[in-house]
Amino acid sequence: MTTNQSEVYVCPLSPNVTTDHLREIMGNFGEIYSVDLESISGCPDRQIGKVQFNDSESARSALTHMDRGEIDGLRIRVTFEKPEGDDLQRLIK
Prior knowledge:
Number of strands: 6
Radius of gyration: 12 Å
CATH superfamily: RRM (RNA recognition motif) domain
Order of helices and strands: EHEEHEEEH
Strand content: 35-45%
């Protein structure tokens, strides 16, 4: 699987986190092209964020500085690949 090295996925996020909130936090690491939030099926109190930076260096910086950080009281993971299946289940518990 090839990954877009200018995109990072942020998970888990509480429903209190908005695209504007995520853009403000992740914007500290570089210019952002887009931010999307997706509800996690079967888990209404968690969501996944996708942040697309204008360049891969900014995405790497966000991953380096924010992975295992905290947003809205939840310890987050920042990855280049979208967490799915068992990996996703481990993150949202």
